[in-house]
């Protein structure tokens, strides 16, 4: 394998992406491509219901899916939401709600059993948030989590965070911060790092593309797999943004400018891999 100088190994040198794709091409059938959704495959929008994958992204994923071992979308969104965007693509696995739900290649949605007793608590929490938070805050109910957004009312950040933290403490729930959002989740051990750590066990390589702090756990899972097996090729790619971009880029091997630029990058990858 060519020396790629991956990760935060000092001295950190820029990753040669063409070289990494070429190495991937030699082991494509053993390679997994993981993608976060919001801010990575889809540009951020004020209204979370109105997002769409960036141009070229879906076509590139459709081309790559039969070539690699697996493509997986690993997101904080529910699987049913992801299905609306990727359901037409065969060979794409969906991991929703940080892995509390999954669906393999168009199959039924499977929910982590330990999370199910928390559905009523989450529904009540969403109702309470709508009743108590100022109207500028956006409450997104996702069956097994509640996301509290302040993108369109940044002046409410502290109020919303304080309210969310107090409710999580009162109800014994967990928190995940994100881009102008605080997510409240059941106390179940499941995150993007755990999902990736399990899926890469039998793989020869994996790429993970993400933009938010929850994606750093996924990067760490690839680092851990590489530490166990130096022949494993793990590539961590950040997608730039003004909120979490610096922290995520610091943990990544390379940074791509935007979801639109990722569409171009993946299209380039299809030329290496097909
Ligand atoms: O794991 P992801 O797929 O990246 O999901 C993380 C959060 O994404 C969504 O919120 C973010 O995107 C919204 C739409 O562009 C934007 O309005 C918001 O400010 C961002 O935080 C989603 O709505 C959340 O539920 C996810 O937790």
Automatic annotation (TrEMBL):
EC number: 3.1.3.12
Pathway assigned to this chain's UniProt record: Glycan biosynthesis; trehalose biosynthesis
Gene3D superfamilies linked to this entry: HAD superfamily/HAD-like, Trehalose-6-phosphate phosphatase related protein, domain 2
Biological processes, Gene Ontology terms: trehalose biosynthetic process
Cofactor(s) required, per the database record: Mg(2+)
GO molecular function: metal ion binding; trehalose-phosphatase activity
Keywords: Hydrolase, Magnesium, Metal-binding
Top EC class, one word: hydrolase
Reaction(s) catalysed by this chain's protein: alpha,alpha-trehalose 6-phosphate + H2O = alpha,alpha-trehalose + phosphate
Keyword Magnesium part of the UniProt annotation: yes
Record carries keyword Ligase: no
Family: Belongs to the trehalose phosphatase family.
Role played: Removes the phosphate from trehalose 6-phosphate to produce free trehalose.
UniProt protein name: Trehalose 6-phosphate phosphatase
Source organism of this protein record: Micromonospora craniellae
Phylogenetic classification of the source organism: Bacteria, Bacillati, Actinomycetota, Actinomycetes, Micromonosporales
